[in-house]
Amino acid sequence: MSDSPRPARRGRLARSAVALAVLCGLASYVAVHQVTGSKGAPRCAVGGGDSRYEFTPEQASNAATIAAVGTSRGLPERAVTIALATALQESALRNIGHGDRDSLGLFQQRPSMGWGTPEEIMDPVYSATKFYEGLEKVPGYSRMPLTVAAQKVQKSGFPQAYAKHEPDATLLSAALTGRTPAALSCTADLEEGRPGDPALVRTELVRAFGGSAAPSSVSGGASAGRSAAEPALLVVPVRGGGERRGWELAQWAVARADTLRIAEVSYGGKVWRADDSGGGWSPAPASPTVHLRLTR
Prior knowledge:
- The chain has helices spanning about 5-35, 55-70, 75-90, 120, 125-135, 145-155, 165-175, 200-210, 240-255, 255-260, and strands at about 45-50, 50-55, 185, 215-220, 235, 260-265, 270-275, 280-285, 290-295.
- By secondary structure, it is of the alpha+beta class.
- It has 2 domains: about 45-175; about 185-295, no CATH class.
- Helix 2 (about 55-70) runs antiparallel to helix 3, helix 2 (about 55-70) packs antiparallel against helix 9 (about 240-255) and helix 3 (about 75-90) packs across helix 6 (about 145-155).
């Protein structure tokens, strides 16, 4: 028998060994990431099944601000739904510095049309306030079709476009106004970077909800004169509105966790943790106040 085929056979064996090594490496990679709970890019979600809306932490933060400004003005959930659907259409809930002609921000408001200066419009609290001021001037807006109410404020060239966002806006407003407890889930990646700043969290709470949302106590953290290795804990009182108000504050904090470096939110017998790969809520001791633990 001739020995000539042997080099070819050895080549095939070598290629097979390399392929097997690659497959084993890939399998190990997948196994390690499954065990360690790799989460991928941070995401947020409300609803479930066919009625589920997924979005980014940036969008969640802006949605939470819009909702907080509305409820702080004493407006009904329907007003928040209209505002959220409008911002979904105009900017996809992103605070963008460009648009049609001189349009800017979450609601694509135009400085040349009297909405404010560019700097003001790029402030989500200001732009949401201006939208609600316009909506409040519309008699019977809460009984109107959403497209009609939004159009009376926005004067859009495509008024029917708001309609397609109503289901998602309804899910968002139910969670962010506190009507649906523990409905907002988010994953977050806060392991690296600066520690959470209690003063900034306090400022943002007061800007969105008013003085009644100012934390009643702050412990730990560098701001308390202690080691920065001890994370700050803020206790936020629930003044007025009962349990629904508490869930509004708690889910606002989850929605803003990425920007404000909030590692844990607990309220009403539930806790959300940024290091939970599922991004949802787990059972916890009940508390009448909202507890926010910041990153180290």
